[in-house]
């Protein structure tokens, strides 16, 4: 059985409204239809599909290096427009080139600290002045060049 495209990611958060607002503002993912579960939450949509599921909880475990989820990623287009959106919003982001692959990643972090990268074809970066890129260290984590 082959594995297909990622269907969705489910995140627990105690900042439900802040997360809904951030995903809508930064990644243009609107909140949409969600089953009537007996707990608070939201489904955020990408290309008409509920891709990020948020579960509202009172407390979330320790953050930082204890996270099991290192990142999740979206393939996208419109690199220049996305970079302008991030800069206009004053959002922190880092750019990385994937070694040996024609991919440019924009790394962002949501209000709970979840690492998300938005992947663009390298051809979209041609002629674009990008911030100083970061590189992948031996641990797989991003480090400054």
Written account of the structure:
The chain has 2 domains: 1-58, 2,3-Dihydroxybiphenyl 1,2-Dioxygenase, domain 1 (Roll); 71-145, Signal recognition particle alu RNA binding heterodimer, srp9/1, CATH 3.30.720.110. By secondary structure, it is of the alpha+beta class. The protein has helices at residues 16-27, 79-89, and strands at residues 9-13, 31-32, 41-46, 49-56, 72-75, 94-97, 103-109, 115-121, 134-136, 142-144. The protein contains 2 helices and 10 strands. A hairpin with an 8-residue loop joins strand 2 and strand 3.
Oligomer: single chain
Spatial separation of the terminal alpha carbons: 40 Å
What is the average per-residue confidence, as pLDDT, rounded to a whole number?
Answer: 84
Number of domains: 2
Tally of alpha and pi helices:
2
Largest sheet properties:
4 strands, mixed
- Low-confidence parts lasting 5 or more residues at pLDDT below 50? none
Global outline: globular
CATH topology of the largest domain: Signal recognition particle alu RNA binding heterodimer, srp9/1
What is the second-level CATH architecture of the largest domain?
Answer: 2-Layer Sandwich
Biggest sheet strand order reads 1-4-3-2
From N to C, what is the helix and strand string? EHEEEEHEEEEE
Number of strands: 10
Helix-strand category: alpha+beta
Percent of sequence in beta strands: 25-35%
Identify the CATH class of the largest domain. Alpha Beta
Helix content: 10-25%
